[in-house]
User: What shape does this take?
Amino acid sequence: MSPTIDCYFWMNSDWAYLGADRLEALAARQGVAVRYLPIDLPAVYARTGGVLLGQRSPERQAYRVAELRRWCRRLGLHVNPAPRFMCPDAGLASRIVIAADQGGAPVARLYKAVLEAEWCDEEDISDPSTLRRILLAQGLPADALLRQADSAKTRTSYQRYTDEAVRAGVFGSPSYLWNGELFWGQDRLDFLEEAVQADGLREAGPPAT
Assistant: This one.
């Protein structure tokens, strides 16, 4: 099995959106695969001491907005810090991504499109009609994936990924796991790449003489 980065993320995570393209680029540079694992972040918070955004102090909420603006300027991306449909139930969107992944679809492009719909286009990603339109725009079998998203198999996978995340030490989104080492946040992608590169050099061994 080829080396893999496990990416645990919430389908409402603005930070996962900001890190999406850079994670893909990192994996391509280093020749590794990414395993995309949507998780139920409120359930993770309940088990790890996290606090949902709306329950945080005004100071913490204000700093989040400041950081988002800084990162958007740096990356040349747009994110609305308070979209019209902010952080709705992400269960269906998560299970659709899982179902698409199980069917071999390009998951990175799909999950980024869902996040963009919420954080850039003011859309409700808990609405099946919104998700159906996104799937069709991606050239995916929308009706089949919506059905599969409600299957027992997909629901079990969603719960399993959430449980796996907690066991791995995950407490926020996005989190990246490489060779047992956890990296929290898209602002830690540089450290993740250093770890991937270092392991690749060790596997390659010393240069020939």
Remarks:
- The two ends are 30 Å apart (CA to CA).
- The first helix runs from residue 14 to 30.
- The chain is about 55% helix and 10% strand.
